[in-house]
Amino acid sequence: MRMRTLRIYSFCALALVALSGCQHVTTEATPVRPGLYSAPFSLSSAGCSQVLHGSSQLPIDLYHAGVCYEQGVGTPASLAQAVENYSMAARWGIPEAVQALRRLDKPAPAADLLQRRIEQEEQLNKQRLDKEKIDAYKSRGAYPAPHYHYPFGSS
């Protein structure tokens, strides 16, 4: 009896889907609002003015600004400014900037800003996990002993 009821409900559900007009459902998604990566960089006056004058938020935009300074698009050509932007982008770990510096026979700095950011994120994650652990102790009614209550030699 139960199996028959299940079959009837399944048939009704399929009939409802078939008759409701859901044949034209598309799977192509369009963003509701533009995101960070919605507008790719183009080497034009408009693209260069966007990365040079205010709306650059990502490290890759430093590389794009360097390209604009090197090519002289949207701004007077300045190799010194290009190298400065490439160096800062390379410090953020942008491989295109490292290649551009090598092409210009300039030393490529290490990705220290990227490494520092990764270390900061790891430290924040550790602090958040420690707080969650303490909150779990508190929710059970058991508080962890302070570090000075541990006997010497153990941690």
TrEMBL record:
Gene3D superfamilies: Tetratricopeptide repeat domain. The keyword Membrane does not apply. It comes from the Bacteria. The keyword RNA-binding does not apply. Keywords: Signal. InterPro entries: TPR-like_helical_dom_sf (IPR011990). Transmembrane segments: none annotated. Residues 1-25 form the signal peptide. This is Sel1 repeat family protein. The lineage of its organism: Bacteria, Pseudomonadati, Pseudomonadota, Gammaproteobacteria, Oceanospirillales.
